[in-house]
């Protein structure tokens, strides 16, 4: 039986990888990643997310100090979230730039985007000391997980402070029946996370203004969503500040 949960507004972290990807198509400094991140945060977003990949095809390693400085100096109430696969180079980048949260994803270098959660039976032993290293530096650790009720306990055993639901299967819907089935998977996984105590829940991948209400109904205490592609697509029509405000309203924040 699904637990009774008190609803709460969900925080919005905007992934600016798509902005960096557009910038990198030319040897020019625009669109300016810092200026757009500043506009996003000034419009009310609660944080910035980046995913620096080994080939730097969007976020460049040199972007990280500038983004960290922007948040620390101009938006100290906001959160900086760096996500990626924990190579030694990635670990060192995170430790050098001191985000509030690191989100570890099981991506291979050639993947175009994240498309599955961790296999903790295979990778849990590898992840645990990495999580301890981040936590010792005061950085919160979140793991990208598939929506399976077994995953929260496995993630916690591997050192997670939070989990981030991979919402691709929910967002890539073929029918209302499929949507309800995936939302039930999400609900059951969220129930197991709550039962552990202290394991908060994030979500991300292909989330939009249209599909967020169903997700929030399934997980009323969802702590945070990380949204990049859908919000950036809206921003091409509306501008980033108005796109951010639309998402904030859907997430339960006053206009």
Topology readout:
Layout: E1 11-15, H1 17-23, H2 33-42, E2 47-50, H3 63-74, E3 79-84, H4 88-97, E4 101-104, H5 120-136, E5 140-145, H6 151-157, E6 162-166, H7 168-171, H8 176-196, E7 200-204, H9 212-218, E8 224-227, H10 229-238, H11 240-250
Parallel strand pairs: 1-2, 1-8, 2-3, 3-4, 4-5, 5-6, 6-7, 7-8
Helix pairs in contact: 2-3, 5-6, 6-8, 10-11
Quick recap of the structure?
The protein has 255 residues and is α/β, with parallel strands linked by helices. The protein has helices at residues 17-23, 33-42, 63-74, 88-97, 120-136, 151-157, 168-171, 176-196, 212-218, 229-238, 240-250; strands at residues 11-15, 47-50, 79-84, 101-104, 140-145, 162-166, 200-204, 224-227.
